[in-house]
Amino acid sequence: MFNTKIAIDLGTCNSLVHVRGKGIVLNEPSVVAVSLIDNKILAVGEPAKEMIGRTPADIKVYRPLKDGVIADYRVTQAMMRYFITRSTKNFRLFKPELVVSVPAGITSTERRAVIEAAMSAGAKQAFVAKEPILAAIGAGIPINSCSGHMIINIGGGTSEVAVISLGGIVTVHSVRVAGDKIDVAIAEYIKKKYNLAIGSQSAEEIKIKVGTALPQRELKFLEIQGRDLILGLPRNIKISNNEVCEAISDVLTEIVQAAKIVLSETPPELSADIMNKGIIMSGGGSLLPKINELVAQSTGVPCFVAEEPLFCVIKGTGLVLEHLPEYKKVVMSKK
């Protein structure tokens, strides 16, 4: 009765929390504000994200996860504790069981760090499971069938391409190129072409509003403000969807290349299954318009974006949480 079970999609950009019996209860940026004077955590999640680019020198706002893994252990632990406390009543009385999603390319040391952070944050037991399998479960793919299924999960810090069959990963390739690198590429392009410096949030806004993976006939423009690098004064420019496409093409090529590597390493029987069923895309990066068409054109394999791609991993983590005995093969380790 009092055994609370929580699933956490611990992302580089956003973290989502699923509580058994309630569904998704939290969707917050993986951002923390820390006072450099006394090392005190001032804000976590949305309140911290609102501080980005607006803080004095003695306050640091950053993400404690980099490329899908823990970069700052203490702050990640505090962030997880915040998520657990926000999601559950009676947290101090009844410690929850946790299932946390991690990249497939994670090392054993990085995996242990996640488990230890979860335990220190207040978990009674902590399990970790690989994101490509969780994304596949969340996308409705029957992972336990003997048929081959291919998924591309594009998060904030990592993109992972995997072929799944009989409940396990047959072949996988991870690249630390994803949503964050797309934002950086947009900011760099604007800096070079227009001598204008923009912040990470402006770059993300450009990606969301006028981003595209393939050139478009119909031009769309977005007016943005930045700082002129020559005069040092604020200046506005208009950027088109096709300029964004040009800016991010190299980053997308790396993700497509990962898909090609996985296809080349896939056994012929499973390749035939993938050709028939197509590739499924999940994660926030798959919301970029035309990205599935780019993958299909580059690989020759049909490609589809999953329903609610942003929630595939947390949905899958939640399902594993609800049916732990059934998915015991998916769970990598516990403590």
Automatic annotation (TrEMBL):
GO biological process: cell morphogenesis; regulation of cell shape
Entry annotated with the keyword Cytoplasm: yes
An example Gene Ontology CC term for this record: cytoplasm
Localisation: Cytoplasm
Presence of keyword Nucleotide-binding: yes
Annotated ATP binding sites: G156, G157, T158, E204, E205, I206, K207, G284, G285, S286, L287
Pfam families: MreB_Mbl (PF06723)
Keywords: ATP-binding, Cell shape, Cytoplasm, Nucleotide-binding
Molecular functions per Gene Ontology: ATP binding
Organism superkingdom: Bacteria
Main location: cytoplasm
Assembly and interaction partners: Forms polymers.
Reported function: Forms membrane-associated dynamic filaments that are essential for cell shape determination. Acts by regulating cell wall synthesis and cell elongation, and thus cell shape. A feedback loop between cell geometry and MreB localization may maintain elongated cell shape by targeting cell wall growth to regions of negative cell wall curvature.
Family annotation (PANTHER family): CELL SHAPE-DETERMINING PROTEIN MREB
Family, as annotated: Belongs to the FtsA/MreB family.
Name of the molecule in the record: Cell shape-determining protein MreB
Organism encoding this protein: Candidatus Staskawiczbacteria bacterium RIFCSPLOWO2_12_FULL_37_15
